[in-house]
Amino acid sequence: MIEIDGSIGEAGGQILRTACALSAVTKNPCLVYNIRKGREKPGLMPQHLAGIQALARLCNGSLEGDELGSQEIKFYPGETYKERVFIDIPTAGSITLALQTLILPALFAPHPIKITFEGGATDTFFSPTIDYFHYVFLKILEKLGVKGEINILKRGYYPEGGAGVEITLFPLLRPDSAKAASFAEVASATKAESTGKQGSGGQASKLKSLNLTERGELQKILVISGASELLQDKNVAERQIAGVKEILGKLKLPTEEKIEYYPTQCPGSQICLIAEFENTVIGADNLGKLGKRAEDVGKEAAFELLREQKSEACLDKHLADQILPYMALGSGKSKITVSEITNHCRTNIWVIEKFLSGKFEIRGNLISWFPKT
User: Fold this and answer.
1) CA 143, 144, 145, 147 torsion-angle sign
2) pTM for the whole thing?
3) Is 344 a catalytic residue?
């Protein structure tokens, strides 16, 4: 059993999500203790609990210590995967953070998997917005050979949530024969690949390696501004766009705008800026907040995107730590340039190296993965 100290580094929920996801892929049970120890409210919060319990259902695994507030869990991954998983989040817990636990293991199933969320928030604080997930995270995953489809049934904001989202993920498995290998065979092959040993049975197509060091020319900036229908009479989505234009308009950058209003359980708004380059995508997002002018929400997102662009890196600082587990399960050496090496990034590297045979190297803003040969 692999033991992970949840108080290491940034000491947040990312440690738990990465550890459990890699536990499911490698078939190694894990113990995570001191969960979120440095936080004001340590231990498992509803969104963390929903994510790991959904993972246990997905791979027919088992959990110990999975209770609200628990600071220690044991996860035992199962041998087979379900084709569908329903996740009920009664709070405004983040759907995109819960997905960080589920996507990586789902790619190694022998069949497509549909994940359905009822409740939770598509756009909430301290997590990527669903638009960032869709247009930035999934776009970069496509470069590694990942295929996924997302259907946003209903938006949900803090504090009530009430969202509805469906995600379909297609497996990396490409069997030589018409008969699909069992998940146990896929997992065996995957684990063998990560440890440098020869696996048995099935053929698990690895994730492609990821080499992103040159962005290429900017193609366009997509600006998606959305808000609850409860705020439509105040033109909140349009005013967020106006804030973006006040900053980016001076630079005469190629932009495309999209304004949306949604039926929701409570008021809320979000904006996401996606800069599409020849070779990569970077993003910046922001959320509306009571007492903050909508124009300022747009301005802040625009300033953040400009900071990311100025770095000339291929990945923004928020995506850097999220992409690392996929790099480490790729088909060979990978390297990426990132705008900033955050504490989240260094912590995720520490967790990944506990499960997989290989080594990350950081030089300036370049992160490289070297699998053990």
Assistant:
1) negative
2) 0.90
3) yes
